[in-house]
Each structure stands twice: as structure tokens, then as C-alpha cells.
Please model this.
Amino acid sequence: MTIKLSRLLEEIKPLEVIGETDKNIESLQSDSRKVGKGGMFVAVRGVTTDGHRYIPVVASTHVAAIVCEDLPASIEKGITYIRVADSAEALGRLASAWYGHPSSQLRLVGVTGTNGKTTTATLLYEMAKLEGYKAGLLSTVCNYIQDRAIPTTHTTPDPLTLNELLSEMVAAGCDYAFMEVSSHAAQQRRIAGLKFAGGVFSNLTRDHLDYHHTVDNYRNAKKMFFDTLPEDAFALVNTDDKAGLYMTQNTRAKVHAYSLRADADFRCKILETRLDGTLLMLNGREVEVNFTGRFNAYNLTAVYGASLLIGWPREEVEVNMSRLVPVAGRFQTFRSEKGVTAIVDYAHTPDALVNVLDTIREVVGNDGEITTVVGAGGNRDHGKRPIMAREAACRSDRLILTSDNPRDEEPSAIIDEMKEGLSAEEMRRTLCITDRREAIRTAIMMARPGSVVLVAGKGHEPYQEVKGVRHHFDDREEVQEALAQL
Model:
């Protein structure tokens, strides 16, 4: 495939162009190792490296054009240099144009927030299929083009991968696409150039402060998504969260609200809850769902609201809501013949842990025994570690601190930081077992009939990352094996 450089330049606003523009571009890359003769290289300032450093190397490969924020000291003959204010933004817009603006050829809905992104986006994808449409999904767990699964590495892919996947969805005849929009993706302009039909905001709690540094920065990164929505899009926000209306302060989209506490466009009330389901009242109509917990009631209300805003018939939506099933690793329940229940959940923030444990306690009551197995990821926000331990301890009868994805850190050091959040009394009912497999087995072997074991933090992940290497490890497999041994 080739595209005229002059045509690509129409997608961005160059501050300066040096060289010929009437030439063909044969490839588009932001990775200096992949660009070659006739290609266009976009030098992006990343988190760990700056693409501008590789411009001299790229120039030696007979590249056709280089997009950058700062021109190099040496201007090579035959190369067109395009200076822009923000090369990350330019990459997103160029990637969209390169693949034929695929987001404009289907209805794309983005979901952002700290918790609930995966569940909400995935359930909207499932709803679309139940409604009889072809759909695509871009999520933390897996990407899908209709029923074809494509492994994922990031919550939101880089612009080139993202637009390539969207173009494949268009080629497959997809009518809709649903995607998680991470705070990193918004701030790094990975979604630049995409046309969204709608955006959904779930909630905002502490997360990713290792990258954003402050909660305000984190919040503002998510707000950037709504700031860029077009006038013909919808913005559906959770107004029970104090950040909900903040997200839409500068949006051009039509704003709609959902709530479990107050009047809203989409109102939900929990009528009855069990470990295997909930009876909801959605805008005055009773709907039985296969999900548990207030946090899932919020997710489902968002799905309900977005489905109606998309234009699907209310009666069909209500029927299909009852047919939806939980996403892998999100409050996924397993039971033994002896009456022990184990729940695997991705909860990896203090707020997510609170939501899951409060839900379990609401169902089992004060007489029910809860054991929580949880760790914290290495090379990430240190500040949340003692908070997570404290929240888990005060809502559990027994706590087991263990390894999560330690990455480059020592698991025992992470556990020591988590222990700092515990009182002397809480420590007396806490075990520290570094080996996650052993921790899960211990929790289940100690459980009594009628009790619940929560294994939190990794959810759907089929690996454990240690010293840069991913080893196969699946909480769900470990739970099932341990339950079978009771």
C-alpha cells in the first residue's frame, strides 16, 4: 500500500515542512527498527525512550519522510522533514488515515474509568452480538474481531495496531466496536484521530500513580477522552462518582447520567442479591442478571444506558441483559461439593477490593467466613500497597498476603510494604505466604463449608511475571484444583 505524502499531511497541522511532498509513502512506523526505504518515521517521545534519538539512524535507511517535534542538526537530502507540535497526536491521526479512517466506518464506543472498563466494554460487545450485529472488542483480557480472538498486550494498543485492528473489523463487516480507553492511552494520544460514537465513564479511584504521580493528573488524563468527543456522540457518566460530571465539563457530546442513588437518565435499584445473581430495577422495570454486587450493578446500568443510547430496542435490551454472563476473572465463582465457594476477581486497587469484599459480606452476612488472598504488583504504585492490605483485613476474617506479579521486585519486600497498613490485631489473623499457589491452596484447605475464599488481583491473567519472564499461572486453574482436593 502507498499513499501520497501530500494526502497524509492533510491529516495533521505541520509547523514546518522541509522537502518534497509529492512523493509516495510505502509504510508508516514509530519504531525505528521497522522503518525502511520509502517509509515515514514518526519520532514520538515515549515513557522510556525518545524517538528523536533515532532520527540519524532512520535517515540512513533511505526513509522518505520523518515527522518530529524538533528538527535534527543535519538535514539529509531526499528526506522530507515534517515538524509538528505533538508527534504522538500526529501519529494517531496519520495511523487513522493510513488505514482508511476505520473508526468512521463503524460505531465505536469507548469506556474509561478506574474499575469496570473491561466488564462494561465486554458486555456491550456481547450485547451487540445478542442484538444480531457483528462487533469488535479491544480490551485488557482479549481483542475480538467478531468471534476471532486476538491476544492483547495493552489495555489500549498503540495507534498503528489500534487502527489496523479497527480496519480488520470493518473488513469483517462489523457494525460496532467497543474498547477500553486507559488513562495512558488518552494522555499518550493513542486514540487521536479516532471517531467515537460514544464514551462511558465508570468511576475514579487511586490507580497508576506510578505514571501519573497525582490523582488530579490521573483524572485529567481520563477527562481528555471526553474533551475530544464529537457533537454527535454521547457521553454517559456515573454521577454517583464525584468525578462524573467533571469528565463532561468541556465535552461537545450530549451528556447522559446513570445512578444507583439519585434520579438520572438511567436509574438502577438493587432489589435482591445472591452470589450467583441479582434482581435489578432498571428505569422501573425488573431485570434478573447473572452478576453480583453493587459494582456490577453500576457496570450493568452503564451497559443498559449505552445500549439504549446506541438505539437498540428497550425490550430486547432487557431480555438480553438476563442472558449476559460474567467476564473471565471478574467475580468468577467456583464451588466445591463440600460447600466452599471461591471467587476469582481482578480487583487490584483498594476501591476494587472494597467493592468485591462488601458484596461478598452483603450476601454471606456477618456469620459467614471470608478469607482473602491478595498481593500487589511490582514496579507499580507503592502507596496503595498498605491501603489494599488494610481494606482487605478489615473486611475479611482471615487474610493471606502473597505474591502478585512481582516483576523486578522481591515478593517479600512487597508483602512487607503491605503489612505496614495492618494493626497488631489484624496481623494476628494474617498469614504471609510468598508462593501464590501455596497461598491459594492454604486458603481453600482452611475454609469451612459455607465460607468464601476471595483470590484477588490477577483475575483473567494466565501468567505470573517474575524478573521480566512470564510464567504460566492462572488463579482459576489453581482454585479449581484446590477445590477438587477438598
User: Anything to note?
Assistant: The chain has a mean pLDDT of 94. Residues 112 and 181 are 5 Å apart (CA to CA). The longest strand covers residues 266-274. The longest helix spans residues 294-310.
